[in-house]
C-alpha cells in the first residue's frame, strides 16, 4: 500500500509551486519499497516495471517517492545504505488521482553541482578557492589507499588521509553517511571527469600553533602517549601536539598514560616538531598491577 503524499489542498498547492518552479527540496530517506512505475526506454517509450523506490519524508508531513534509477546519475546495486540519510530532490510529477508526488534525486544533484561548479570556478579565478567551508557527506573510505570519498552539493569529491587531521597519528574515524565540514583545495574540470579535492584538516585549528606559545627552557605539563624501544618516548603537551621526549637516568621509566612535567629543549616551527626532557611525575607514578599478585594476597 502506498501512503498518499498529501492530505489537503493547501499542501498540494505548495507542492504544485515547488513542482512548477523546480525548487530543490530536502528530505530523509525513510525506507526502500518495490513499486510498479513507468520506466523510460532508450527509444523514448515507457514500460511499467517493478523498481526499487526510495520513500522520502519531506517537510510538513509530505511523503515523496523517488524511483531508484532516478536517484543518482550512476547505477546503484543496493539502496539500503542510503536509508536514514538526508538528500536533495526535485518534484518531477504529481499524480493527482493517486495523490502521489514523484521525485528525482538525479535532477536535484545536477542542479546543485552546476551551482557548485560556477561558484568554484569563480573562486579559483579570484584566488579564494580554499576560503569557504562546505558540508560534505562521506560516501566511502578506502583504507588501503587512505582516501575518503565524499559528496558536496551533488558532486563527488575525495580527500587523502593526510588531509583528515593535523595529527598524523590519528586514524580516519569517519563513518559512511556522516556529514563533515571541508574546504576545497583543488579542482579539475578540463576533461569530462570533473574532480574536487577537499580537506577536513583545513577547517580545524592547527594544534601546532601551540608551539608558537612556548620557548626553550619553559616547563610544561604533558601526558606520555608512546614508549617504544625503537622510537623512544613521545609526550602529548596539547591536544594533537606530540613531542619527542628524553628521560634523565635518575628518573624512573615512564609508562603510557603517565602525567609528566617537562622542560622544553627545542622548538622547530618550520618542521612542526620539538623535544622535551622529562622532569618528574607530578601526580605520582602510575601503579602497574602485578597480574599474579592475587596469588600472594591474604
Keywords:
elongated; 5-stranded antiparallel beta sheet; 298 residues; OB fold (Dihydrolipoamide Acetyltransferase, E2P); 2 helices; mainly beta; 3 domains
Overview of the structural elements:
By secondary structure, this protein is mainly beta. It has three domains: 9-106, Beta Barrel (OB fold (Dihydrolipoamide Acetyltransferase, E2P)), CATH 2.40.50.140; 129-203, Beta Barrel (OB fold (Dihydrolipoamide Acetyltransferase, E2P)), CATH 2.40.50.140; 207-280, Beta Barrel (OB fold (Dihydrolipoamide Acetyltransferase, E2P)), CATH 2.40.50.140. The protein contains two helices and 15 strands. The chain has helices at 9-21, 105-126; strands at residues 24-40, 46-58, 62-67, 86-95, 100-104, 133-142, 147-152, 155-160, 179-188, 195-199, 219-228, 232-238, 241-246, 259-268, 273-280. The strands form three sheets. It has a five-stranded mixed beta barrel. Strands 8-7-6-9-10 form a five-stranded antiparallel sheet. It is elongated, with a radius of gyration of 28 Å. The chain starts with 8 loop residues before the first helix and ends in an 18-residue tail after the last strand. The model has no long low-confidence stretch (mean pLDDT 89).
